[in-house]
């Protein structure tokens, strides 16, 4: 099982190639495509018998196609007698549906975990889950990495004076507190209420002092950027001099790009767990690479070393 094989679906081939470059190994050979009837076909084009295999596939747009691709690739590797299969999912789609918060609704994050397990995955490697309890949805080993060190290092190097870290809602406050600790800055929290099942949120209050300071908002993902728009406006009203924003996952759906372009936010810093291509490549969006982090985690899983040591400081 010493020989390492890394395969890519169509979700983020550039990230997979960068991981392989870090590991100094060739990208695994496979065919993954969709027939005219929308059925997905996968063929592993090299020997994986008794090999340690990794499938890199974020569950991002097109979400359902990428998910099914991942499941079929795992099944193909299992039937090809791979010794161990690790699903490397930089962005875990459906992660927001992690609890039953309304009558007669599913817990889809748990369903996805079951599908991944049943398809034949032996372990999961992911980055910054929307809710930590999703790890408990799996009956296989889960390694959750965090991009917090990468994001904090970027802003530490910028050496911004009078910086205050702002949690975009109470649910993200622990992560924002960790960021504030790494940057040695105060913490503020935005209290907001989500409106029904829509992508809209109403900003209610800012807990903490931001007047005359440079604010850095922290979130796990930016989807439609509606919340970001409201938070930036609220911070400006409270006297923040400038506003930066950072998150791990740049979902950037619907009107997100036009909202960010027109928003007074100075810079939005994200990681490449999801491809940022085409119109998403705005001047004010900075993309930090995660391939070294993911590649090192894969190497440590393959050789039986500690993953936690990556984040020990």
Short description:
The protein has 313 residues and is of the alpha/beta class. 30% of the residues lie in helices and 27% in strands. The chain has eight helices and 14 strands.
Number of domains: 2
Report low-confidence residues grouped into runs of 5 or more. none
By oligomeric state, this entry counts as single chain
Q: What value does the Rg take, in angstroms? A: 20 Å
Shape: globular
Strand content: 25-35%
Number of DSSP helices? 8
Q: What is the β-strand count?
A: 14
Kindly state the percentage of residues in helix. Answer: 25-40%
Query: How can the largest sheet be summarized?
Result: 7 strands, mixed
Explain how this protein is built:
By secondary structure, the chain is an alpha/beta fold. The protein has 2 domains: 4-146 and 291-311, 3-Layer(aba) Sandwich (Rossmann fold), CATH 3.40.50; 148-288, Rossmann fold. The chain is 30% helix and 27% strand. The protein contains 8 helices and 14 strands. The chain has helices spanning 13-23, 63-79, 108-119, 148-158, 173-183, 226-237, 256-262, 291-303, and strands at residues 4-8, 30-34, 40-44, 52-56, 84-89, 123-127, 141-145, 163-167, 187-194, 201-207, 214-222, 242-250, 267-271, 285-288. It has a 7-stranded mixed sheet, with helices on both faces. Strands 1-4-5-6-7 form a 5-stranded parallel sheet, sandwiched between helices. Strands 2-3 form a two-stranded antiparallel sheet. α1 (13-23) crosses α8 (291-303) and α4 packs across α5 (173-183). The longest helix has 17 residues, at 63-79. It is globular, with a radius of gyration of 20 Å. The chain starts with a strand and ends in a 10-residue tail after the last helix. The mean pLDDT is 94.
